[in-house]
Amino acid sequence: MLTADKARRRRDSSMATGNQLQNVGQRTEKADRQSAPAFRYRTAVVGLGYVGLPTALALHSAGHEVLGLDVSDARLGDIRTGRVDLLPSDHNRLAEAIGDEGRFDLVADASRLAEADTVLICVPTPIDHHLLPDLSPLAAACRTVVAQAVPGQTLVLTSTTYVGCTRDMLVEPLRRRGLVVGSDVFVAFAPERIDPGNDKHVQRQVPRVVGGVTDECVRRTRRVLEDCASFVYPVSSVETAELTKLYENTFRAVNISLANEFADISRGLGLDVTEVIDAAATKPYGFMAFYPGPGVGGHCIPCDPHYLLWQLRADRVSAPLIEATMQLVAGRPGKVVQRALEILADRGRALRGARILILGVAYKPGIADVRESPALEIIDRLRAAGAEVSYADDFIPSLVTSDGELRRTEQPETMEWELVLAHTLHPGADVSWLSRVPAVLDATYRLREFDNRAIL
């Protein structure tokens, strides 16, 4: 664990090393090419999930020779056949890349990493059922990268993690191997910034933050990422970059929780919270619109702040606002279930035996991803209370619940439901049939046109 004192000592050491290597950092690109080892690939990407695959495709489109590494043969097979959840533009890139043998290669053999000039680590950093960081995928990936590292390489960690992780999992193990960071190899942290399913924020239009162990580490990383970002913003240390990412997603968690609280306030006052938020959003300064919902899901908001809280608890540092926020985040699905019970009770119906449909289970519209989706906990809680729960989602053919696999309901508009919970509304979905349902619990706050609608 990296304490504040350790971080300061390491930053001071890094600055000294950076000054010693300043003459190296001023070399020209031509000199770099003349002195660098002959690598077969410009970039290798470790982990080809929601971050790694789009990143690999963006770099290939920018002219890089790309090596993609993933431990899952099934995942590699899905990528080769195009059975992956990507934006349409990235599907086009994938089709072009798969046919570009020698410039876009997919492998499961970690020894091939030695063939790449730069290695980007893009593996997931989830939390467990106790809301504690699960560092096993990241630790395994870093061990692999360190074991295969060769002089001249640049190693870049992009996965969201605790402050000090880059040094703990890359810098120190490299040192134990006898490789000096800043001269033999180069290490940086550049947090990913990918918004799945959103074509308004494609990678090439989004800035990237980079913190390196030395100035030369920053320069080399910047040279790579500038090919797939609008610009690169360097910071003074890897720790600064690590905390930057944690702040970004903690900011979102806090504001979503505030929006949920205003939704409760607005319902109590008989007002439409989305109208309130839309009106507030007309202010051109000092306000950013966040909207309420059934909870938060995905790889970032429900997970990342726990990496910070876990580290702070170990150092006996309190963060009461963040702690309260994450308690509210964890409790939101339970409020959805309680509201469903109230709506059924108002109709003289118990939760036990009630036929309930969850409309949309992906964690956000337009994607086939249920990681940390509030719908999973909502389904488990409703079924535990005795309800007969089904779901419909064109993007998700099946999902795993606490009771086992649950397959989606086809043509839900033809069936009888006592309550439909509108959880996730995918773009272009026809929901007109909801007018025929006895009751709709609108957790999206967007179905204003239905008279049978109750809000969360």
UniProtKB/TrEMBL annotation:
Family the entry assigns: Belongs to the UDP-glucose/GDP-mannose dehydrogenase family.
GO biological process terms, semicolon-separated: polysaccharide biosynthetic process
GO molecular function: NAD binding; oxidoreductase activity, acting on the CH-CH group of donors, NAD or NADP as acceptor; oxidoreductase activity, acting on the CH-OH group of donors, NAD or NADP as acceptor
Biased composition range(s): Polar residues: 14-26
Name this polypeptide is given: Nucleotide sugar dehydrogenase
Matching Pfam families: UDPG_MGDP_dh (PF00984), UDPG_MGDP_dh_C (PF03720), UDPG_MGDP_dh_N (PF03721)
Transmembrane segments: none
Species this chain originates from: Actinoplanes nipponensis
High-level lineage: Bacteria, Bacillati, Actinomycetota, Actinomycetes, Micromonosporales
Record keyword Metal-binding present: no
Region named Disordered: 1-35
